[in-house]
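Researcher: Next entry in the queue.
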Amino acid sequence: MLNDTVIRIILGILLILFIPGYSLIAALFPKKNDLDGIERTALSFGLSIAVTPLIGLLLNYTPFGIRLEPVLLSLSIFTVVMSFIAYIRRWKLPEEERFSINFKYYFNRINKSFKEESRKDKVLSIILAISIVLAISATAYVIAAPKEGEKFTEFYILGSDGKASNYPVNLTAGQTGNVTVGIVNHEYSTVNYELIIKLNNQTINDKNITLSNNETYGQPFTFTPSTYGQNQKLEFELYKLPDSSTSYRSLHLWINVG
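Model: Structure for this entry, 258 residues:
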């Protein structure tokens, strides 16, 4: 429901760049006199920037790897654990020594300071507040609606081991060859493709594929040459519909059948 919205982006930025560091600071400095508000805020951003890459580095040496779900889960676990430690440490302190955010106190303090300012200072304060709101709004807009980059489609074939090597180019008649056909849509819109595979100019597979932006298609494909001969051409032609007359991307392998 929140996908591709400003709220999702803001929450994501907070989770990565502020909350982990703040929870760590809260666990390390539970007393209100340990640090002032500005120091806590600055250190929260700084430690988040340090903690997030370290978690990613650790994940790189696990079977999970650096992917969205493991990173978010690890950051969430780290934040929950640090928050729990902070809660325990604050609970053990006398109530008057515990750090807490008194929103009413800060609001009244700002309101009082604003009333005591001269008319000129009030105008400058209002202009500054408006400038900050506009800057935050512009930043949110840039993040939420980034400029489109180059539009293109990735089209590739991989060998039987899932790498760009060990292609089945030397076969015997009747032997099955295996490849993986991959398509990645970077067209910034949903695209209908037609994939046609030919062997010696004869169509052996014809498939329509619909991919949304940044969606990936990857499927194994098997073929069995029935005739002997050298340099038999296995063609992979990708059409971007509705244009079905000119191939948008094309690849080929030369197959030797002995």
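Model: The radius of gyration is 29 Å.
Researcher: Noted, moving on.
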